[in-house]
Amino acid sequence: MTDSRNLLLQAERQCQQRGARFTPIRRRVLEMIAEASGALKAYDLLDRLADEHASARPPTVYRALEFLIDQGLVHRIESLNAYVACPCPEHSHGFQLLICRLCGRVEELHLEDVNAQLADCAQQLGFRVERQTIELLGRCDACGDTDG
């Protein structure tokens, strides 16, 4: 779980510096994601948000998620179609995610040598990378060798 209070303060500062509107709904969606023990799906967020805002609809959540991703505050886990807070939004480039398939814990890595190698290979092949997501699925130490 990410320290949600610090993450929200950092998000506010970052959005203010960039001139991006950090609306109450965007803030609440980020807060819910940051407080979760694992990744959350959009409809889980919608259910929680609808309890607080009767007018919340899928486009509300998806627009908030799109904004948070664009600002580097949230990552979409492609393999799970779920979202997790970015613990270090100051990193605006490639990252790697370790995802426990049993408990859903997600850890973020920034292995610059991996990013550089991928960028070099892509460039050699005449490809321009616009977004990079590397997901490693396995088991965390807490889940150990249990079957699941």
Automatic annotation (TrEMBL):
Cofactor note: Binds 1 zinc ion per subunit.
InterPro entries according to UniProt: FUR, Fur_C, WH-like_DNA-bd_sf, WH_DNA-bd_sf
Cofactors named for this entry: Zn(2+)
SUPFAM superfamilies: Winged helix' DNA-binding domain
CDD domains cross-referenced by the UniProt entry: Fur_like
Pfam families tied to this protein: FUR
Signal peptide: none
Molecular functions per Gene Ontology: DNA-binding transcription factor activity; transcription cis-regulatory region binding; zinc ion binding
Cellular component, GO annotation: cytosol
Coiled coil feature spans: none
GO BP field: negative regulation of DNA-templated transcription; regulation of secondary metabolite biosynthetic process
Record keywords, A-Z: Cytoplasm, DNA-binding, Iron, Metal-binding, Repressor, Transcription, Transcription regulation, Zinc
Residues annotated as binding Zn(2+): C100, C103, C140, C143
Gene3D superfamilies named among the record's database cross-references: 3.30.1490.190, Winged helix-like DNA-binding domain superfamily/Winged helix DNA-binding domain
Assembly mode: Homodimer.
Similarity section: Belongs to the Fur family.
Protein name from the UniProt record: Ferric uptake regulation protein
UniProt organism field: Halomonas icarae
Gene giving rise to this polypeptide: fur
